[in-house]
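Figure 6 in text form: structure in, sequence out.
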């Protein structure tokens, strides 16, 4: 079997898909994207395709090595995301070639279902209480929330209290038997993060995510030690080498993104590295259906998996939904906030190719919002 063609599709709301074709008619799908830089990743995918055209798609690890390291310069979001999407597509082909889901190739299932959380949003505690209640009624046992918008670098008591009030409102709706995770999104300054961790401790969040921006790795250890709340991060780390200092700093939950961190091949290794440090895997996935499918394949085969992010029905998927691009969206239907084991070959989904081609003709130009402080200086989103 040889790879004959690699195509990319820029699909709303903000994703990029790739399709790898072989001379035996088997197809693999991947989702190589960095949100807001889809066009840059697209260019990288087509550059890397030179490695793949004419090659055996089943030599996944060799292709991963060459694509990741063969350009001499390596790492970073654009390259690692391009490799990630192509790696997903190669695993999809490998599963289809053998007639099994990818997790069977990764050692077989280690669990019967995958627990997922739902996002809740809102500025006012009342709104968050209602949204949390709605997710409880939908069957979810965990939710995640941002808890703060733009914050002053040294927040006053009113700003700090507002964050605590929002998390408290969610906790109230959830009760002690469900979980709330809080994403600081790298938008909370180091001094604010330290204070908030102490203030949030009585509400027992499942974890606090990205307490600081990823380049502030030197501060992570002191944030781990600031409270007993488990610290999560990793959506902006792209390899096991990037993750090592986070693990050494005592991060409890590793959150690589299947579409950013070198795909299924590398996320498996990041999970194994996390296991050495007693940390758990919670794949980041506010992305599309292929990325979620790849996440699930890893989740079902990974012993130290914790919980899965997903963005079905989320507010920013404006115009197009994750389920729109699938022939049978039932593979992502939740029962009690859980996803069942996909049994289809490869990634376990059937992409609606006509829909994808049509969506690519519209394309998108999604960008991260730019936030500013009242004095017009840049603020982290
Ligand atoms: Mg996050």
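Output sequence:
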């Amino acid at each position: 079997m040889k790879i004959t063609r690699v195509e990319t599709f820029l699909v709303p709301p903000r994703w990029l898909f790739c399709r790898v074709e072989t001379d035996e008619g088997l197809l693999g799908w991947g989702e190589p994207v960095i949100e807001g830089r889809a066009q840059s990743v697209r260019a990288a995918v087509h550059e890397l395709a030179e490695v793949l055209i004419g090659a055996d798609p089943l030599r996944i690890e060799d292709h991963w090595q060459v694509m990741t390291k063969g350009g001499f310069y390596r790492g970073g979001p654009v390259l690692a995301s391009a490799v990630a999407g192509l790696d997903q597509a190669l695993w999809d082909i490998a599963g289809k070639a053998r007639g099994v889901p990818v997790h069977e190739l990764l050692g077989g299932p280690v669990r019967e279902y995958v627990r997922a959380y739902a996002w809740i949003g809102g500025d006012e505690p009342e709104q968050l209480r209602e949204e949390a209640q709605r997710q409880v009624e939908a069957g979810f046992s965990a939710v995640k929330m941002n808890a703060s918008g733009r914050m002053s670098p040294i927040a006053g008591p009113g700003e700090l209290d507002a964050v605590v009030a929002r998390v408290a409102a969610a906790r109230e709706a959830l009760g002690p038997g469900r979980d709330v995770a809080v994403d600081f999104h790298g938008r909370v300054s180091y001094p604010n993060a330290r204070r908030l961790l102490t203030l949030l401790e009585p509400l027992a969040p499942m974890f606090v995510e990205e307490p600081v921006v990823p380049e502030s790795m030197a501060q992570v250890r002191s944030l781990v030690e600031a409270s007993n709340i488990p610290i999560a991060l990793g959506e902006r780390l792209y390899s096991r080498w990037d993750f090592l200092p986070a693990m050494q700093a005592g991060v409890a939950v590793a959150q690589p993104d299947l579409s950013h961190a070198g795909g299924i091949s590398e996320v498996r290794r990041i999970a194994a590295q996390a296991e050495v440090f007693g940390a758990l895997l919670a794949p980041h996935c506010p992305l599309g259906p292929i990325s979620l499918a790849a996440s699930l394949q890893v989740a079902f085969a990974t012993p130290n998996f914790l919980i899965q992010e997903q963005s079905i029905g989320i507010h920013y998927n404006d115009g197009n939904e994750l389920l729109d691009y699938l022939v049978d969206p039932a593979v992502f239907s939740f029962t009690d906030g859980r996803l069942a084991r996909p049994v289809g070959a490869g990634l376990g989904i059937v992409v609606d190719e006509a829909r994808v081609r049509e969506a690519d003709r519209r394309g998108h130009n999604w960008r991260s919002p730019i936030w500013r402080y009242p004095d017009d200086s840049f603020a982290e989103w």
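Caption detail: The longest strand covers residues 3-11.
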